[in-house]
Each structure stands twice: as structure tokens, then as C-alpha cells.
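Example for tutorial group B:
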């Protein structure tokens, strides 16, 4: 007979801390060592988002339910983010910690805008459209967390070096 086990919030937090924090910290440490690659990852992700929103989802708009004008707006924004990312990647002697936190804030604003527009058009947005935006926002939020944490570590270590 199967036993049903209920978890309280504390148990879920402990489980997540034990099983997720170590891999994420390892990822952040590796990203800090080569922080410029985060700009490349973010930039290519922005290009993929722009392509999916501006080409693929527009072609299947009736299956997504979000108006073409909204998809076009949401496709245009990542193009500017990609330009910012590639500029930061190519620039020499940049303050990557601050710039990473900058793109993280822009990505967060983009997620809020996307979520707001999906809610605004919720009556026409299909389940498939909701799934797409949930997946995109989840991926971008994960990247935001990495960018903020790496940016903070870079700023902290450069501040400590200046104090020595």
C-alpha cells in the first residue's frame, strides 16, 4: 500500500536547499570566472526569443491567441537586449558586474511586461500561448538569478580588491 506523505513548507525549503543550492553555486562560481560568456548566453537567448516571437508565433498566432502587434512588440525588445549583450561581450575593460546586473534588470522588466500583456489578453490567449510564455519567463528568470548573483560576486570581489 502506498503511503501519502505531505510536506510542509520548511521541508520543501530544506529539500530545495540540499538539492539545488550546490549545483547553482557551482554554476555561479564558473560563470564568475568567465562572466563575459553570460553576455553571449543572454544575447543568443534574446535572438532566439525575438525569432520565436516575431516569426514562429506570428505564423501560428491563431493557436497562440496573443495579437500580432503584441508579439511584434515583445519580439523587438530582445533585439535591443542582444545588441547590449554583444556590445558588453566585445568591450574591453568593462565593469561586468554592473553591466550584468543591468541586463538582469532589463530582463526582469521584460518578464513583467510579457506577463502583464499575457494577462491583459488572457481572454484570447490559448493554453499553448500560456505554456510558451510560462516557459520563456521561467528560463529568463533563471538567467536573471544567475546574472544578479554573478554580478554581485564580481562587484563584491572588485570592492574587496580596492580596499586591499
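The residue assignment follows.
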Amino acid at each position: 500500500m502506498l503511503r501519502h506523505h505531505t510536506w510542509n513548507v520548511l521541508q520543501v525549503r530544506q529539500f530545495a536547499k540540499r538539492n539545488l543550492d550546490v549545483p547553482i553555486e557551482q554554476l555561479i562560481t564558473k560563470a564568475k570566472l568567465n562572466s563575459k560568456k553570460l553576455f553571449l548566453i543572454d544575447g543568443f537567448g534574446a535572438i532566439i526569443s525575438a525569432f520565436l516571437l516575431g516569426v514562429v508565433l506570428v505564423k501560428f498566432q491563431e493557436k497562440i491567441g496573443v495579437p500580432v502587434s503584441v508579439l511584434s512588440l515583445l519580439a523587438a525588445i530582445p533585439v535591443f537586449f542582444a545588441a547590449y549583450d554583444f556590445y558588453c561581450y566585445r568591450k574591453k575593460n568593462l565593469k561586468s558586474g554592473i553591466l550584468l546586473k543591468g541586463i538582469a534588470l532589463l530582463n526582469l522588466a521584460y518578464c513583467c511586461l510579457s506577463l502583464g500583456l499575457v494577462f491583459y489578453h488572457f481572454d484570447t490567449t490559448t493554453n499553448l500561448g500560456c505554456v510558451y510564455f510560462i516557459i520563456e519567463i521561467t528560463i529568463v528568470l533563471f538567467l536573471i538569478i544567475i546574472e544578479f548573483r554573478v554580478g554581485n560576486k564580481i562587484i563584491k570581489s572588485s570592492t574587496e580588491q580596492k580596499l586591499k
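The radius of gyration is 19 Å. Compare this with the pattern of hydrophobic and polar residues in the output above.
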